[in-house]
Amino acid sequence: MGGSFSCSGVRDAYGGYLEEGDYVECTTTGGAKQSLGRVKYIHEDRVTFQWPLFGTYTYTDSDIRYYGVSKVMGDRDGYKFKMDQIVELLDGTEAWVSLYSPQSVTLNFSQMGGYDAGGGSGGGGTRSYSQRDVEAYGLRIASAGFRGSRRQCTTCA
Q1: Which pTM value belongs to this model?
Q2: Across the strands, what pairs with 60?
Q3: CB-side exposure of 61: number of CA atoms within 13 Å?
Q4: What whole-number distance in Å separates Cα of residue 144 and Cα of residue 90?
Q5: Contact 81, 99 (CB under 8 A)
Q6: Cβ atoms 41, 59 nearer than 8 A
Q7: Quick one: DSSP state of residue 117?
C-alpha cells in the first residue's frame, strides 16, 4: 500500500484519480457486492486491488469500468464512511460525519465534548480528513448499531 502518490492518471469508473492505499468498492451488478477493496499497486495501465474476500487481482481500465470500481473513504478498519455516523479518534474523541466525498470526510466536533478540530481540547468545529489523515489519526466508525460498537442505549442495556 505505502500511500505513495500516483502520477499515472489511472482513474476509477467515475473519473476519480486512484492512489495506492485508496479504498474502493464495486458499484455495478458485474461486481460482487462485498467489503471494500484497497489499491495495492498502480501500474502504467492497470491497478492491483486487494479484496478481503477474493484476494489480490489486477484490473485494466475496462475491468474498472465493467465492475464500476469507485474510490471511497474508509475508516482504519476498512469500513465505508457515511453521513451522520459517529466516528472515534485514537484518543477516544468522538465526532460525527457532516460531509463525505471520495476524496475526504469532514467531521463535526461542535456537539461532541468541546474538541478542538485543530488537534487539542477546546473549541469544537469541523475538520476534513484525507485517507492518509484517517490512517494517521486512526479514525474508526463508532456509531450505535455498527459492528462491534461499544455504544449502546442506556435503557436497553
Answers
A1: 0.77
A2: 46
A3: 10
A4: 18
A5: no
A6: no
A7: T
In this predicted structure, what is the pLDDT of residue 147? 46
Query: Does residue 142 contact residue 126 with C-beta atoms inside 8 Å?
Result: no
**Under 8 Å between Cβ of 139 and 87:** yes
Residue 111: pLDDT band with limits 50, 70, 90: low
CB burial of residue 4 (10 Å; 0-12, 13-18, 19+):
exposed
Q: pLDDT tens digits for 9-58?
A: 899 999 999 999 999 999 886 555 667 999 999 998 899 999 988 899 99
* Residue that the C-alpha cell 476534513 belongs to: 128
CB 42: neighbour CB atoms within 10 A? 21
Please state, in angstroms and rounded to a whole number, the distance separating the CA atoms of residues 93 and 96.
11
- C-alpha 98/C-alpha 92 separation (Å) is 19
Q: Which residues contact 139 (CB under 8 A, 6 or more apart)?
A: 75, 76, 87, 88, 89, 105, 107, 129, 133
Instruction: Single out the residue of 15, 21, 123, 19 nearest to residue 64, CA to CA.
Output: 15
Q: What angle do CA 90, 92, 97 make, to 5 degrees?
A: 85
